[in-house]
Amino acid sequence: MNNYPLLIEFVPGTCVSRDPAFVEFVSTLPIVQNGPPGTSIVFKDGARVPLPTDQIVFSEDGGGSARVGFGGMSFEGIEGDQLVFLRVRDLQPEEFLSPQRGRRMTLSPRIVASITVDGRVVWPQ
Predict the structure, then answer these.
(1) Angle at the Cα of 94 (from 7 to 60), degrees rounded to 5?
(2) pLDDT tens-digit profile of 53-110?
(3) 37 falls in which pLDDT band (50, 70, 90)?
(4) Are 27 and 97 in contact (CB under 8 A)?
C-alpha cells in the first residue's frame, strides 16, 4: 500500500465521481462547500459529498469503497460531531487556484471508515 500524507477511506458502497469539466482546475471556478468542485464521493442513495479537487493526489474505488489521498491537508481531529481537516499548503501555484478556495474541510464520521496519516491509522483509534 502507498503512503499518502492523508488518506481517507470512506464507508463501503461509495465511489469517486470526477466531473470532466472540472478535472483541470482553474481559478475562475466557484467554491461549493468543501470545494473547489469537481470531485465528489457518491453514496448508494445518490447523495454526494464534494472534496477539494486541487488537493487530491490519489483516488480509487475499485474495492467497494472510495479511498482518497490528499497532499496538502492535515487531519485536525473531531470538532463537535465533525471530522476536521485543514489546508496546510497548496499543491499548485497561486495563479492556478481559486482565491475563494476552502481552507477547511469537514466530514461526518458516519461516512468515513478510516483516516490514515503518513501510513498510520489515526481514526478511529
Answers:
(1) 25
(2) 888 889 999 899 999 999 889 999 999 999 999 988 877 777 776 666 678 999 999 9
(3) low
(4) yes
For residue 26, the model assigns a pLDDT of: 41
Nearest to 43 by CA among 72, 1, 14, 79: 14
Q: Which three cell numbers stand for residue 70?
A: 490528499
pLDDT reported for residue 76 = 97
Task: Give Cα separations from 25 to 4, 41, 54, 78, 119 (angstroms).
Answer: 21, 18, 7, 29, 28
Beta strands in the chain (DSSP E): 6-12, 15-18, 39-42, 48-51, 56-60, 65-70, 73-79, 82-87, 104-107, 112-117, 120-123
**Residue 37 CB neighbours (<10 A):** 20
Contact, 114 vs 124, CB < 8 A? yes
- What 3-state class would DSSP assign to 25? coil
